Amino acid sequence: MSGKRIYIAYTGGTIGMREGPQGFAPAAGFFEAQMRQMPELLAPQMPAFDVVEYSPLLDSADMSPDDWLRIARDVQAHYDDYDGFVVVHGTDTMAYTASALSFMLEGLAKPVVLTGSQIPLCETRNDARNNLITALEVAANHAVPEVTLCFGDALMRGCRARKVDASGLAAFASPNFPPLGHIGSRIEIDQSRVRRPESGATLRVQAIGGPHVGALRLFPGLRASVLENMLSAPLEGLVLEAFGVGNGPKHDQQFLDVLRAGCERGIVVVVVTQCLRGRVDLSGYATGEALASAGVVSGVDMTPEAALAKLHYLLNRGLELDEVRRLIGVDLRGELSAG
Prior knowledge:
single chain; alpha/beta; Rossmann fold; 2 domains; eight-stranded mixed beta sheet; four-stranded parallel beta sheet; 18 strands; 27% helix
């Protein structure tokens, strides 16, 4: 063993499921029992580890901001006793949790690696084994002191990752920022891309989940009444997934009036692109200028998941609304590209 100790928070997901009469489902104690049967985990480079199983085990579709907070506080409670952390999680909302933890864990100086699988660990042919082994190796043996997502052949910054394949084994990508590491015959980390921790910082957890934050994807024919309902109280922040580089309907005056009224009431509306890659430029087209004139702010090249998490984070800090709007466009955790 490597001499390192890793804390594994097992929250649920496909990786630890077993087959039953109604199909695959989580089973208490089953994931750790499967792990303990893996001879690879006894190799010299592998760390010692403790598995803490959450109760109830959650399908990631059931994850909420309260669960993000539970994970963050779990890391904080065991921070001084372990060299790194692995969060085992279902894939459907893993990118949301990775983004949220990136903001919540202030002053982080140890690896926190999220992973999971598309096929359960108990299956003969699965992706769970390699994902789990790699996540443990990264957490124990590589200097990556930030929240990351380890899946397939890539180690990605948590607040840059997106799920891009519903069932394929290369399920996640980092469209607007290169992976921090490539997983092949070796684990190769590009240290020039890894964020360095604050000097002398201690870990703090910023709670999120109090303010009401939502997301809405534009589509042709979206009625102003739908937007109006979305922007009604108690909403405080909205991620608006716009067309292309941040475009919306400039000829629908009722839509723009509703959007402007929401912004004037203090709702922070962050525009991100619906496209997998690229960034928002609200000055590029008249249709983007129309949204900008209504009071929205650019999410630059943030993923929708990161923008949602960042809105939660900033609105929970008790900042003035102008400061929240300003900080949306400031790189805090590597979630967006400057310039």
